[in-house]
Amino acid sequence: MSTSDGAEPYPSASAESSLATSSTSNFSNPPLHTEMRIVAERAYEQYKNRGDMDALEMSIQCYRVAMGATEDDHPEKVDIINNLGVALLRRFEYAGERQNLEEAIFLRQLANALTPDDSPDKPSRLSNLAASIFSRFKREGRTEDLEEAIGLWTHAVELVPDSHVHKPTLLGNLGSSHLTRFEQLGKLEDLESAIAKHARAVELTPDGHPDKPSLLNNSGSSRRKRFDQLGKLEDLENVIGLHARAVELTPDGHPDKPSRLNNSGNSYQTRFKQLGKLEDLESAIALHARAVELTPDGHPGKPSRLDSYGNSHHTRFKQLGKLEDLESAIALHARAVELTPDGHPDKPSMLNNSGNSHQRRFEQLGKLEDLESAITLHARAVDLTPDGHPDKPLRLNNSGSSLSTRFRRLGLIEDLESAIKLYAHAAELTPNDHPSKPRWLSNPAGSLVRRYERTRDLKDLEKAIAHLPRAVDLTPDGHPDKPSLLNNLGTMLQKKFDKSGSLDDLDQAITHLTNAVSLTPEGHPDKSTFVYNLSSSLHTRFNEAGNAPDLEEAIRCSTRSVELLPKNHAERASRLRLLGLLFVTRLRSPHSQADDATHAMEASLEAMQHPNSHPLDRLHASSQYTNLLLRFPHLFNTTPLRLTLLNAYKYALGLVPRCIWLGNNVRGRYASEELPAIGAVVNDAVTAAISAGEYGLALEWLETGRAVVWSQVLQLRTPLDDLRQLHPQLADDLYHVSQALQHAASSPSNSLPLSPETHGKAQPSLEDQAQSSHIYALEYEKLIAQIRELDGFKDFLLPKKLSQLAGACASGPVIVLNLHNTRCDALVLSHPDHITHVPLPEFSRTHAVKLLGDLWYILDTRNLRGRFRDSEWHDDNRGQDKPGDGGKHDTMFIVLGDLWNLVVKPILDIVTTLPTVTSTTGLPHITWCPTGPLAFLPLHAAGIYRVGRSVETIMDFAVSSYTPTLEALLKPHVQASSTGDYPRALVVSQPATPGQKRIPQTTEEADIVVSLTGHSTDTLHDSDGTVDAVLDGMETHNWVHLACHGLQDKADPINSYFALYDGKLTLSTLMTKHLPNADLAVLSACQTATGDENLSEEAVHLAAGMLNVGFKSVIGTMWSISDRSGPIVMAKFYEVLMEQVRAGAELQPAYALHEAMKALRAELGVNRFMEWIPFIHFGL
């Protein structure tokens, strides 16, 4: 931005400089005060000419001595006081120390009070006092200071006639203060007054006058502001002329030459942004470079000139895409920040611009370090800018923009909420009649729409659209913000169409987007985005109405959007993906062209492989590419399709770890849109591998895409023994960073060691803690990359190969089920060297979805959402099923029968014939690893049932367990003590948890468990069962039994919890624990293995949580259980388990639960499905 030369101190009537001076005394030995004054004046001139801060310090010291040595009634006293105030103000402008400013104001108030109204020096005193108070306003933003400064300068102007030699200076200062009030309040009359006063000051100043360049410069600054508001090119042309003339009239060597060169460069840069003429930008860079060159190091103006120089390089980068320009901008902005002391009024501006350049590099290269830097810099800029400062709304907006960008990249809802608040604050601080108000009102629209897309709250969409039409109407044609506002309005109307289906909304969207494109000059950095959005809307209208011209124009716009974007831009993958999709659309239409498939594949492949783009965009592009491969195999007739397709999927799955970022808290990772996208790609890849007969590859890929978040949490706990032996320092560094990230795993509110950037604050904010988490995650990634460069560590913490996973079948075959829209299959891992493929041709994903819907219907209609007392089950028949009535009681028979006939029996027919499937206990043990909807269906209970009996069920042929991943089965098996010692067990019972229904039979259940497990069992009954006590007990016991209420939180799955006496033991809390000595967890509570149907591959439930914190075996429940079932199940379960303990055999909790289910069915009846089916076993 162009700046004025500042409020110039107005000289005394008898002076030739800005400091009041007196003639040298005729005495050979002048008085001390005169001698000191002369030295002070010379030192001040040296400072003015060279920017020498030592000279300024000498000037201040000498003035202090002179002031102390001068009698109060001496005629020079007032001048000395005034001049000391001038020097202190200059020191304040350099160092930003408030005490200098306050002392300057005090001295100038004193000088003004001591000067009579009829004194020729009165205008000088008024002007100098106004300048000091104006400086305080710029620092602190207090409107009363601005009003006082304007009043003082107005009085000074009134005291002197037009013929007075200093009238132009006073007019210039008054004009600058009106310009500032316009920036503060947005009243155009202030802007017009500023322009008029600056123009009058120029008019009254003859050519050749030394103040002429300064007045020309200030006149240019006020006209520049009018251009910024109204967008009139004639104003901008006048600005360029005025600034160029100011530079021309300023001799080389003049201390203000660099400042005027800088302002002239800013005006050329503005015209470039308006008209896109590269020669203007080159002129701006040359002028800024010259301004920096002429400004000595240590000069107070150096930082601002470096900042402007950085801005011009930033602009050229946006135009030409040369990374060296962006690197220069970042370096220049960093240097400007470094040279600007804390407390300096320009510090926030420097921080803001530095944040902008880092955000731009993130958008270009996709490096999260840059985005984190941008967020930090923008936040500091906001913190250092007082409310009332005219630039506060701008800095709030930029801070919101960087947080909104991080939300788009990482999906943290907290970022989006913060961004919306910052945008709202920017609008709140701007008066309603301020010209910038429409812009600040429109900026939150994008974030509100993103929140609507996340929450589907229509109020957000309505708010997003509400302010935009008014903002567009209030912005004149030609204004530089007009295209952006039109683009935003068009985008919002597109979103409204997506909801309403009204073609009128879509037509209006396209009209506004077309206007946005037409009003944006070629070369403008936003042109590519506007053209992309127009292409997307045209594509939507073609899909709705089928008009061929819309599709052709969409392809033309999309092609142009890609052409306008630099090759290494982070948004390139999303633009290429749309282009590929458009070619696919035309390929499927009657208007197809011969090369559409080729163009679509080329665009999709480039998008998939683009290194700087968002991993999720690349993942979507990979799906597009592989779908094209499957549809057009003839395009790859020189390469086997199988290899080409599998290589494409291998590349895509390599993106998975980058899609779910470790720097997010776990809640944010589970809420992100990336997980469903990963699941879809993994599902396609596994299906392709099975189709190609690559069963081992299919298992590896399935493992890569399952329980991604849990895998990340567990990865942080990986033993580092091998690394520590060879590279101890790296191992220590990785350990400490991993520990910090583990603390942040469950919530941003968890305590986290502060990073260097946030260290030193007594009470870190949530933002500080999140920032620390991100910084540690970036450091973790760097360390992992460094370790993989070492000999012997190239596969360090990479997904496991089949050879490493094959041990999962040590306790029996593992059956992995893959459901796809095109086929369903089972892969049976029964031996480390053998995988059996079992196709399931009669089953489909659609059928699985239907069965799951039927099951949910039963659970909902029977209200099976909490542990119930025995009487409740009898009262409303929650557990009973009776076939043949044609109603809901038939449903469970159908669900179990279909699972048996179409899934389980075909698999068992193969599994039971495998030579490796044997058991010393009679029935083989199989472990199910289901995917998709099957993850929520009771495979362990599949069978044909009739009234009061079972005909043929899985329980007759095998003992079932479940596992979320193969890796969960790689833990050491639990061996009973060879001496017959009982394990240390903890039993928790909660018959009367406050705020929950009473479940009295948990007491009986606990007594049974204690009686069977022996003297080494500890209990926490009723009020003893607090959250802390249970967590402490988990640390010291091998077995843990919880008899209490449990709940799967559908809205926030990691908030699923066990209800204990003093509160909730949540899944997020469990995630922070690591229990390497834990063996068995029995969760006799409701819904402990229910999971979230939207995250079928993630196993987000309490049972999986216990498995992943260290327990090797976990008993959980798929839905609610009856209070009476607990004692029956646990009596038999522990009876069988303790027989294994006494025999010194390997513990097999799955067999114990199998026997317990048989006992429960015998007690209640086999048809009480809803009571016995929910109990399931996870793990070994």
Characterization of the model:
This protein has 1180 residues and is of the alpha/beta class. It contains 49 helices and 16 strands. A six-stranded mixed beta sheet has the order 9-8-10-14-15-16, with helices on both faces. A five-stranded mixed beta sheet has the order 3-2-1-4-7, sandwiched between helices. α43 links the parallel β8 (985-989) and β9 (1017-1021). α9 (212-230) runs antiparallel to α10 (233-249). The chain is elongated, with a radius of gyration of 38 Å. It starts with 31 loop residues before the first helix and ends with a strand. It comes from Irpex rosettiformis.
What tags apply to this protein structure?
single chain, 1180 residues, alpha/beta, six-stranded mixed sheet, 16 strands, elongated, CHAT domain-containing protein
The helix content is 55-70%
Distance between the termini: 68 Å
Strand content is 5-15%
Strand order of the largest sheet: 9-8-10-14-15-16
Low-pLDDT regions: 6-27, 747-766, 866-879, 882-888
Alpha-beta classification? alpha/beta
Beta strand count: 16
Mean pLDDT across every amino acid position: 85
Q: Please describe the biggest sheet, giving its number of strands, its sense, and whether it closes into a barrel.
A: 6 strands, mixed
**Rg on CA atoms, Å:** 38 Å
Instruction: Please tally the helical runs, counting DSSP H or I stretches of 4 or more residues.
Output: 49
Report the principal-axis shape.
elongated
Protein name: CHAT domain-containing protein
